[in-house]
Amino acid sequence: MLQLTDVAKSYPTPQGPLFVLDGIDLHLAPGESLALMGESGSGKSTLLHLAAGLDVPDRGEIHFHERALSALDEPARADLRRRHLGLVFQQFHLVPSLAVIDNLTLQARLADREDPDWTDHLLERLGLTGLEQRYPEQLSGGQQQRLAIGRALAPRPDLLLADEPTGNLDEAAADRVLALLHELIHESRCALLMVTHSARVAAPLDRCLRLHYGRLEPGEP
Amino acid sequence: MSGRRPARRAGVVGVTLATLLSHYRRHPGQLAMLLLGLWVAGALWSSVQAINATARDSYARAEALFETRLDRIERRDGTPLSPATYAALRRDGMAVSPLVAGELTLAGSAAGEAPLRLLGIDPLTLPGTSPLARRTGDAASLRDWLLPPHRLRAAPDVADAARRDPRLPPVEVDPGLPPATLVTDIGVAQRLLGLAGPTRLVIAPEAPAELPDALMRIPARQLASPGQLADSFHLNLTAMGLLALVVGLFIVHAALGLALEQRLGLLRTLRALGVPGRTLVVALGLELLTLGLVGAGLGILGGVLLARLLLPDVAASLASLYDSHVGTRLALPWHFWLGGVAIILGGLASAGAGLLWRVARLDVLALGHAQAWRARLGGLLRRQAWAGGALIMLAAGLGGWLWLTGDRQLVAGFVMVTAALLGVTLWLPAWLAGSWRLAARLGRRRALWAWALADLQLQLPRLQLPMMALLLALATNLGVSSMVGGFRLTFLDWLDQRLLADLYLHPEAERHDALQAWLADQPEVATLLPARHAEATLLDAAAQSAAPVALFGIRPAAVLRAHWPLRLPAAERDAAWQALAAGEVFVNEQLANRYRRRPGDTLTLRGADGRRHRLSIAAIYPDYGNPRPEVVMPVARLTRVFAAPPGSLGVVLRDAPGSRRQRLDALVTRLAARFGPATAESAIDQQALKADATRVFERTFAITRALDALTLGVAALALLTTLLAQAGTRRAQLAPLWALGVSRRRLVGVQCLQLTGTALGTALLALPLGLALAWALVAVINVAAFGWRLPLHLFPLQLLVTLGLAVLVAGLAALLPAWRLWRMPPRQLLQEFAAT
Ligand SMILES: Nc1ncnc2c1ncn2[C@@H]1O[C@H](COP(=O)(O)OP(=O)(O)OP(=O)(O)O)[C@@H](O)[C@H]1O
Ligand SMILES: [Mg+2]
Question: Using a 6 Å cutoff on CB, does residue A85 contact ligand 1?
Fold first, then answer.
């Protein structure tokens, strides 16, 4: 479903180009879950951004559902994100001016795929029932995290891309959120590519890979 | 809890737009600021446009009536035409039509109310090109018009008053007539005005006429009003309106920039969630359009209300300055409304286009970084400073050229002023940044000082727009108040010079000479200054065109010679007075400018008796606030040569112990005993006269002052709203300092100092700009617009007031955010700290 072939990416810096990714090959099947590990600054977020079509690689090709991202223009990539991808960011990026319920359904509404039953189910499973009319700033860190996950799952994406979704939570809270995430993923038969530092977090996933000096190596959770 | 929720369908654009707009629900202050900016800009601009449109409508109606449509036939000697002359011309087959024009005071009108213009026409002979003739076209209405009780057409503003006058025929309202004008059948008009025959004959411009020698034909073209001066008055108004519009748009731009910068994160999130960049730009564009339409509606509404408030003063100004009559009721054509909406939307588009362009160009991952956003601003700042410098050079060059050539061109003047204002405004941020760097270097050792200045550099992108607005408002304020102040000083001086006598008497004609003789014998009287007034016609060399001028007779007594202002070096004044005594004349500046005469040139005047007189000009004198050309000569000559009727007698009191009032009263009491109370009542105290004249003067500048004050108020609002809108972000920046042990009181103090210091820096730049503006107004624009020149006065106090105003505006604007910071519980500051 997601296929990266010989992908390279560098950033221009005052000291010359910084080569972050260099010849990445990666395949993800539908429903499969994959943990991406690596040291800080190794390029994990960069890879995720490329996979989401938020950025373009210097070299190589990314296919999603057999379609090459490089062949799509910006509106088409945006369309693909809207309908098929769920994104969970390290800093959540909730919309501060929208109430919880509107944040939760935002992408689903953008994709014109709002499903009230699924929304209610998500609210209940995420423990956000009763908080629908609050604003993000009135939620705890864990609640915001769950809301961000809910927003990504609400349009029933085929692939969830999550960048350290539990980075801001303590272990117990992180475990609860992750357990929930796995259940919801199974329910909606969604694939998962998750960036994490933590072996504990990576362990329950189907596979684990490690980024090292711009290349992917098999990883030990 | 969780019942079935209905699915909402709105499409990508709809959802995006709703999400973008939700920002304003959480930040109503920003929305208010945006609408306020649009409202203010729109209101000031459209009020000026409404006033101009009304004036133009009045002018157009006045001109459409005859002045530009029909040629006029007059006797060469200026004596009234007789009905026999008219009959003879008609008999010879010429298509002339008789016309009666005069002034009529309506029964029951208040004392001091201006009389109306009454025109009598003969619809049967009036050429068809006149709008008057068209109106009486069909047979029934022609019959009504010609047969008793006849009909009277009245301009809308006077129709009701005309209906109440029992002498007048039944009234029909005619919106095509100029203000304060009545039209009726010639017979009725003659009866109402007490005339025996027509006052003039008119003829269609294309109709041939073989006139006898005693008559001349004055082409319609030459009768066109001397509208150029009034035009430049409106140009001045438009320029003021444009300035207000620009200041208002500064607010809009600042508010939009802020609203967008604070939504950068949101924009990125939306892009990440799959909203294409193009959709985002469309949604933002729709947001702008909605705001623009609401703002335009509010602005135009406000403008119309403001115009209604200002119009009476403007009409009074135009009447006293240019003798042009403007209705006091708004008359707004359809294109006023459309134009208002267009200019507000256009202004909003110009303020928003740059932002939209930047949104469209920034890529998804950089979109969220305010830093990237600001980095672009750095480059912008440099380019801005260069452009500003170039504009300042252009303004200086133009100024030098105007100075050297002495040419007073309105367009060059406006270009110079605009370039200077814009150039300095663009240059302001660079100037502020430079001053802060310098100040930072001076106070490097003090941590809080260094922080405050570094923080100001960070705030510059947000502060620059309100500071630019402040700069423009301060400079205009200084320029305009210097001009008005100088004008007032000159005017009061001139009043003192012209109103030399302590008492003015206007005796009945038959008592005039006796009174003059009696006054000359009174012990209180030092000098008698008789004055007379007559009318004449100024002819050009070919005696083809004619214009009315006023003749003014004075007695060149020593006091008067000492005070009468002349545009001559002091050394040449005595010679000029001798020339006056020897048969030459003085003319006022209005005559000199309008007919391009200088000392040494000659004038040909035709008196009421038809005789012509060639007169040589000895000197030119300033004559502020007088719309008419005027010629001055000794009163004895005016009486002899132009048969001027007896006029006023000015009495200059002798210096003596006791109060002036008492001596004046004693004289008036004896006068009443000798000549009766009626003559004594015609006495006017000079001080009352001065008060009257000053009131008229103040009215003239009412609109200038009003717009000026409004512009300054707008700048203050711009600053306040910017501060309020960014108060949240500011607190987040201040919270760490508070956490590090800086007391809230010091934080508030630092903030106020930062702002007032910046405002002061802005004001320092506004001073030279304002002075340059004052010079341009006084020496270039006014000469072109009003026809007279003013000396440039500088008021040191005014400079201090400008600095003080800047500090006041900044202080007031800083007060509310500072107070809110002051009142904020520490817990909340802690939250801000945790959030950063
Ligand atoms: N826009 C950019 N310009 C220049 N360099 C960048 C940019 N974004 C990232 N980098 C650099 O690229 C490298 C990889 O960054 P990336 O954010 O992908 O790391 P990461 O693996 O996600 O790290 P972390 O675990 O800390 O989140 C880093 O060295 C970073 O400094
Ligand atoms: Mg990362």
Answer: no
A9 lines ligand 1 (CB under 6 A): no
* Phi and psi angles of residue B526, each rounded to the nearest 5 degrees, phi first: -90, -50
| Unique residue bearing structure tokens 């802005």 | B762
Nearest protein Cα to ligand 1, atom 28: A41
DSSP codes of every residue in chain A: -EEEEEEEEEE--TTS-EEEEEEEEEEE-TT-EEEEEE-TTSSHHHHHHHHTTSS--SEEEEEETTEEGGGS-HHHHHHHHHHHEEEE-TT----TTS-HHHHHHHHHHHTT---HHHHHHHHHHTT-TT-TTS-GGGS-HHHHHHHHHHHHHTT--SEEEEESTTTTS-HHHHHHHHHHHHHHHHHHT-EEEEE-S-HHHHTTSSEEEEEETTEEEE---
CB neighbour list of residue B640: distance below 8 Å, 6 or more residues apart: none
What residues have CB less than 8 Å from B199, skipping those under 6 apart? B80, B81, B99, B100, B101, B102
Bridge partners (DSSP) listed for residue B173: B154
| pLDDT 10s digits, B765-776 | 999 998 888 888
pLDDT at residue B13 above 70? Answer: yes
d(CA B427, CA B820): 33
pTM for this prediction: 0.63
**3-state SS, residue B553:** strand
Q: Which of B4, B10, B276 sits opposite A75 (nearest CB)?
A: B276
ipTM greater than cut 0.90: no
pLDDT at B222: 42
Residue B517, pLDDT > 70, answer yes
Domain positions in chain B are 78-213, 404-493+694-836, 498-693
The tens digit of pLDDT for each residue in A137-172 reads 888 888 998 999 999 999 999 999 999 888 777 788
- Dump the DSSP string for B646-671: P-EEEEEEPP-SS-HHHHHHHHHHHH
3-class DSSP state of B778: helix
A38 Cα nearest atom in ligand 1 = 21
Angle made by CA atoms A193, A199, A203, in degrees to the nearest 5: 65
| Closest residue by CA, ligand 1 atom 18 | A43
Name all domains of chain A by residue range, CATH numbers in brackets: 2-218 (3.40.50.300)
- In DSSP terms, B200 is beta-bridged to B99
